[in-house]
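User: If only I could read backbone structure tokens as easily as an amino acid sequence. Underneath my words sits a plain record pairing an amino acid chain with its backbone structure tokens. This is the protein in question:
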Amino acid sequence: MGVPVIGCRCAVCTSPDPHNHRLRTSALLEAGGRTLLFDAGPDLRQQALAAHISRVDAVLLTHAHADHISGLDDLRPLNFAQRSAIPLFGSATTLGMVRERFSYAFHDSSRGSTRPELELCEIRSGVAFRAAGVAALPFDVQHGTWSITGFRIGRLGYVTDASALPPESLALLRGLDVLVLNALRYAEHPTHFNVAQACAVAAELQPRRTLLVHMTHDLEHAAVNAALPDGVELAYDGLVVEAGDSYDSAP
């Protein structure tokens, strides 16, 4: 829902600490001279302006819940600037939902109006692909009853909205510099890791650094950070990190 939550007056939602102001989860990866976007939620316009984004070469979609795809229409200005369609990489299920919800983007039904130019590119778990020349490996993530997508690119692992990771996916996440992992709150939840579960995954995989994302207003930034294990920390809006230089890119 983002933080502050609409209508809430709790201590986190009214906190003056900017680390407690959270837009919907998304990330931008610069690799091999290319720019890849993980998900495109309803705050994309605000996030893109804050990060001074002028180009997106590809979008990697984890799944089609509203907080991860509702901002796809805001790619239109980049279509204009780049004079090209932007490829969206996702599972068949995810791309089918994108086509349904953004049907106007895939047929010209209104003369004179503009629409986002989106190229749908299907990917399959465990099968490597190239996004704008950058090598990526998708894998299955359990999100409650949904099977969604995580990504490994070089020594970066990106997992959000997980409630479980299959053994074969865990095997693909070893040897990381940076693991991005969801941790919704302290209490258990049927469709997301809580803090303890996310820390257990980090302890098993032993990346150099684990960044927790997709937090609710149950988590106060400074207090939670102080209690986390070494090498695990809460991410925050605008955070910039390096994840090694092992990206395999090609034109």
In short: Helices lie at 44-50, 66-69, 76-82, 92-101, 167-171, 195-205, 221-227.
